[in-house]
TrEMBL record:
It comes from Somion occarium. This is Succinate-semialdehyde dehydrogenase. Pathway: Amino-acid degradation; 4-aminobutanoate degradation. Keywords: Oxidoreductase. Pfam families: Aldedh.
C-alpha cells in the first residue's frame, strides 16, 4: 500500500498490486492520473466536483484493500472513472463516524439545519449545469431531462429545509387533572440510505434532506453505476458547511451484499431507507428486522395507465409519453400496462405512434436527443424478453421492437398493441421504453385488471367524467394516482406505494416523520 498527496492535497491510498504494471513503478502518477482522468472525462466547469473516493468522517478516502470499480457511460461504454471498492471495514467506520456526529448534529437547532440545507440547495443551483452533465454521462438521460432531475433533486433540499423548522410537537388534553401531556419529535439516529441508478441525484436528496432536517446523520450507499452524482452532492454539502461525519458515503460494487447487510443489521443504525427492486427490498427488510429498525421502502411499480373513452385523447397521449418514456422507461412510477377503452383504442394507438416516431434516441449530450440509452445490456435484454414474450402470445408491433446499434445500451422506443393479459409485461415491471397497449370494454373490467398485481406504487387514468374520476381514483390500489396527468413527482407530495411497492412515504409533510421518533412526556405533580 502507498499513501500520497496529489497536487490538490487529497490523500490517496491504493494497493499497488491492483495497478497496471507500468503504474506500479510510478504509483503517485497512476493515482493522480486516475483522479484527473475521471475529472476530465466529464468536461465540467468545476472539475473538482468529480470525486473518486468514498467519504467518511469528513475525509475523502480510498478502499482499505485498494480495489476500485470502473464506471462507464451507458451511451458509449467508455470509461468515466473509478470509485473505491469498499467493504465491511469502511462501512463500520462510516457508521461509527455517523454515530459520533449524531451526538452534536442532533443537538443543532432546526434553524441551523435549515440554513445549512438552504446553502446546500443554493450550491446545487449554482452548479446545475455541471451536475446535470454528470447525471447524463453516468446515467444516459438527455441533458434537458438531467437538468430537470437536478431541479427536482434540489427541491427536496429546499422543501426539507422548510420542514426542519416546522417539526412541531403537540399538547394533548389530559385525562388526569394534575398531569399535562406533551409530545415531542426527536431524530431517530444514524440512518442508512441505499439508492438506485435511475435518479442518481434526486433519490439521494429525497432521503438525505429529510434525514438531515430531522437531525439524523447518514451513511449512503450509492449505486455502482452512477456514484459520481452522489459524490458531487457530498462535495457540495461539504462546501455548504455540513459538519464531518454527518454525511458518509461507502462505495462498492463487488462487496454490495456484505455492505448492504451491514447497513441493515448494524445495531447502531436506527433506520434504513431503500429505493430499488422488490426482491432486494424484501432481503434488506429481513436483515433490518433482526434489530427491529424503522424502514422505508420504495420498490417496484408496474403502474396501470387507463384511457377511458370520455378522455381528451391528445392529453392522454401527452400524459402517456411523459409517464412511459421518462428516463427511457426506467422509473418506478412509469406506466407499464396501458389499457385503452375499445372505441378509442385505434385512434389512441395511432396518435401515440406518431409522437413516438418523432423521438430521437442517442447520446444524451447531443442536443437533438430526446431519449437516451438504458443503463446496461441486462436492461436491454429484459425489454427484448418482454417484447418477444408478448409477440409470442399474439401482440403486434406498432412501432420499434428492437435493440438499436451501439456501442451503448439502446432499445428502440416501442409500442405493442393487443398485448394479452397473460403477457409477462402484466406481471413484471419492464423498466424500459416499451408501451404495451391492451383493449378493455368497461370500467369494472379495467379496475379489476389494473389491481390484478402484487404491486401498487402509482396508477394513472384519463377521463373527463367527474364521477368516474372520483370512483377510479378511490378504487385503484396504489399509493399515488395521476388523474388526467402523467406527471406526479414533486418534493411536496407523499411519494410511496402500497402492497409490495413499499412502506412509508418520502417527501411532502409526511417525509420528515420517517426520520423522527415520537416521544410522549407526562408532566405530573402540578
Ligand atoms: C423512481 O423511479 O424511483 C422515482 C421516480 C420519481 O421520483 O419520479
Amino acid at each position: 500500500m502507498v499513501s500520497l498527496s496529489h497536487p490538490t492535497r487529497r490523500l490517496l491510498t491504493v494497493n499497488v498490486s491492483t495497478l497496471p504494471l507500468r503504474s506500479r513503478t510510478y504509483p503517485r502518477l497512476a493515482l493522480y492520473r486516475m483522479a484527473s482522468t475521471a475529472a476530465s472525462a466529464f468536461g465540467l466547469k468545476d472539475g473538482s466536483l468529480i470525486r473518486t473516493q468514498g467519504f467518511i468522517d469528513g475525509k475523502w478516502v480510498d478502499a482499505k484493500e485498494g480495489g476500485t470499480v470502473t464506471v462507464t457511460n451507458p451511451a458509449t461504454l467508455e470509461e468515466l472513472g473509478h470509485i473505491p471498492e469498499m467493504g465491511l471495514a469502511e462501512t463500520r467506520e462510516a457508521i461509527d463516524a455517523a454515530a459520533r456526529a449524531f451526538k452534536t448534529w442532533s443537538k443543532t437547532t432546526a434553524k441551523q439545519r435549515h440554513d445549512l440545507l438552504l446553502k446546500f440547495f443554493a450550491l446545487m443551483k449554482e452548479h446545475e449545469d455541471d451536475l446535470a452533465r454528470i447525471i447524463t454521462l453516468e446515467n444516459g438521460k438527455p441533458l434537458a431531462e438531467a437538468k430537470g432531475e437536478n431541479a427536482y433533486s434540489a427541491s427536496y433540499l429546499e422543501w426539507f429545509a422548510e420542514e426542519a423548522v416546522r417539526t412541531y410537537g403537540e399538547i394533548i388534553p389530559s385525562a388526569i387533572s394534575n398531569l399535562r401531556n406533551v409530545v415531542v419529535k426527536q431524530p431517530i439516529g444514524v440512518v442508512s440510505l441505499l439508492t438506485p441508478w435511475n435518479f442518481p441525484s434526486a433519490m439521494i436528496t429525497r432521503k438525505l434532506s429529510a434525514a438531515l432536517a430531522a437531525g439524523c446523520t447518514a451513511v449512503i450507499k450509492p449505486p455502482a453505476e452512477t456514484p459520481f452524482s452522489c459524490l458531487a452532492l457530498v462535495e457540495l454539502a461539504n462546501r455548504a458547511g455540513i459538519p464531518p461525519g454527518v454525511i458518509n458515503v461507502v462505495t462498492t460494487n463487488g462487496n454490495i451484499a456484505e455492505v448492504g447487510k451491514e447497513l441493515c443489521q448494524n445495531p447502531v443504525i436506527k433506520k434504513v431507507s431503500f429505493t430499488g427492486s422488490t426482491p432486494v427490498a424484501k432481503l434488506l427488510t429481513g436483515y433490518a428486522s433482526s434489530t427491529l429498525k424503522r424502514i422505508s421502502i420504495e420498490a417496484g411499480g408496474n403502474a396501470p395507465f387507463i384511457v377511458f373513452d370520455d378522455a381528451d385523447i391528445d392529453a392522454a397521449v401527452t400524459g402517456a409519453i411523459a409517464c412511459k418514456f421518462r428516463g427511457s422507461g426506467q422509473t418506478c412510477v412509469c406506466a407499464n400496462r396501458i389499457y385503452v377503452q375499445s372505441s378509442i383504442y385505434a385512434e389512441f394507438a395511432s396518435r401515440l405512434a406518431e409522437k413516438v416516431a418523432a423521438f430521437k434516441v442517442g447520446n444524451g449530450l447531443d442536443k437533438d436527443t430526446t431519449h437516451g440509452p438504458l443503463i446496461h445490456d441486462k436492461a436491454v435484454a429484459k425489454v427484448e424478453h418482454h417484447v418477444e414474450d408478448a409477440l409470442s402470445r399474439g401482440a403486434q408491433i406498432v412501432h420499434g421492437g428492437k435493440r438499436l446499434p451501439g456501442p451503448g445500451s439502446f432499445f428502440a422506443p416501442t409500442i405493442l398493441s393487443d398485448v394479452p393479459t397473460d403477457a409477462l409485461i402484466n406481471s413484471e415491471e419492464t423498466f424500459g421504453p416499451l408501451a404495451a397497449l391492451t383493449k378493455f370494454e368497461t370500467e369494472e373490467e379495467v379496475i379489476k385488471l389494473a389491481n390484478d398485481t402484487p404491486f401498487g406504487l402509482a396508477g394513472y387514468f384519463f377521463s373527463r367524467d367527474v364521477g368516474r374520476v372520483w370512483r377510479v381514483a378511490e378504487a385503484l390500489e396504489v399509493g399515488m394516482v395521476g388523474t388526467n396527468t402523467g406527471v406526479i413527482s414533486q418534493a411536496v407530495i407523499p411519494f410511496g406505494g402500497v402492497k409490495q411497492s413499499g412502506l412509508g412515504r418520502e417527501g411532502g409533510k409526511y417525509g420528515i416523520d420517517e426520520y423522527t421518533n415520537i416521544k410522549y412526556i407526562a408532566f405530573g405533580g402540578l
